Amino acid sequence: MDEVNLAPDLIDRTAAAFTRFAGIFGAEHLLFVFLAAIPAAIWLYIFFRHQKENKLLTLATFIAGMLGVVPIFILQHEIIRIEGWIEAIGLSVILVILLKGLWVGVYEETVKNWVVRCTGRHFFRNIDDAIQISIIVGLGFAFTENALYFYSIWDNPAISNFWFYFVFRSIGSMFLHILGSGIFGYFYGVAHFAKPVLQEELRKGNHFNITKKIHQILHLKSETVFYQEKITEGLLIAAGLHGIFDFLMGMSQHYSDAGSALGTKLWLVSAVPFLVGGYFWLTYLLDRKENHKLYAKLSEKEEADILEAERIDIEKTIGSLN
Q: Which of 191, 40, 49 is nearest to 120 (CA)?
């Protein structure tokens, strides 16, 4: 009987989610939409001031990122329920904060990555395109999230310094979404061009032992295994980075609630090297020459070459076992 009611319930949730999303741009929210747009525009300028991006594509991708909050609205009850399970396990405060941070990282990065995979892959010419489109999706998601957050704390009597939180969200939280999305974009770009990338790596003499083992056991194409490996790797790293940042912020809030000003500041400041390191990592990936290389569809000869290289590697592996 529950299955019979699932579809109508899902339709109602989806309709309510889109209504809630549209409500973000109502008259009472316009100030907060404007405030959220300021850091989004600044970050777009920082990362793309030297790029000649298609303005229409950038706008469409940004809007797609904004809509990324809709699946979270739809599944909000389940998300809250899992958070309740984490709190009910009876672990220490530190472990609860860590697990909740990782959980937030998993579902938010999964949603953003899903948006990229649904909307952006048709426009990839190289790995750099995947990074850039992922960053724009992350900015769109963060823009919507900030508009909601600014509205929620504007008249909150427990929040004494709105502008501190505005600056913090504009720099820290928004860049976190840029970092997570950009890192995933790199790995997704590698996965998207799995055939030529794998071919290049094999030519360089690099060996992918895990890929080979899965290829031998499941009899899947090596590029298919490589694709899934990179997608999984990118998602785990993005969710992990997101979880670490949320853990640092959660610990800072914990000490704030406990009345410890020193503990609050120490955990808050600890996020600075994390974000600075992430910024340099991301700019390195954007500037890396290999990521700007255009990838065309492989010719039959190139496909034959990569298959031959795989065959030789497999024979060597079997020979070493004998």
A: 191
The tokens describing 233, both together, are 């790797």
60 and 123 Cβ atoms separated by less than 8 Å: no
Residues 6+ positions from 180 with CB-CB distance below 8 Å: 105, 108, 109, 112, 138, 238, 239, 241, 242
Q: For residue 41, how far is the Cα from the chain centroid? A: 19
Count, residues in the chain? 322
> Are 131 and 291 in contact, with CB atoms under 8 Å apart?
yes
Amino acid at 127: I
Q: Distance (Å, rounded) from C-alpha 116 to C-alpha 12?
A: 26
- Mention every residue, 6+ apart, whose C-beta is less than 8 A from residue 253: 264
Question: pLDDT tens digits for 165-205?
Answer: 888 888 888 999 999 999 999 999 888 887 777 666 656 55
Query: For the whole model, what pTM was predicted?
Result: 0.82
Token pair for 237? 């790293």
Q: Which two tokens stand for residue 176?
A: 């976190």
C-beta of residue 258 within 8 angstroms of C-beta of residue 225: no
CA 239/CA 140 separation, integer angstroms: 18
